[in-house]
Write a structure and sequence with these properties.
The chain has four helices and five strands, in the order E-H-H-E-E-H-H-E-E. The protein is an alpha+beta fold. It has a domain of 57 residues.
């Protein structure tokens, strides 16, 4: 399979990192280096970025890439499997992180 180049926006979308973080990590050797494509264009090899993402997952979750839900705090194991916790901003009665009745 032929490798392809990814531009910065696609790298940001794939990794979830900000532009400045990508360039900072790249300059310190913690992220793949960009490759010049022309006088004002550069890109990253897709295979290198995907390999980096896989390494981050392995480092965070272990060699199989799966989180052990039994070790997470909070809900019981069966509750975590049944549903994901709802963030406060989406609970009933809240709007934009503030209580619906409060006015400031």
């Amino acid at each position: 399979m032929a490798d392809r180049f990814m531009r910065i926006r696609e790298v940001m979308r794939l990794t979830g990192l900000a532009r400045s973080t990508i360039f900072l990590m790249s300059s310190t050797g913690r992220f793949p280096k960009q490759i010049p494509l022309g006088c004002a264009a550069s890109g990253w090899l897709e295979s290198e970025v995907v390999t980096w993402c896989d390494a981050q997952i392995r480092a965070a979750r272990g060699s199989d890439g799966r989180a052990d839900l039994r070790e997470l705090p909070g809900l019981s194991y069966s509750a975590r499997v049944a549903r994901a916790p709802v963030s406060r901003g989406y609970q009933k009665g809240y709007r934009s992180g503030k209580r619906a009745g409060n006015k400031r």
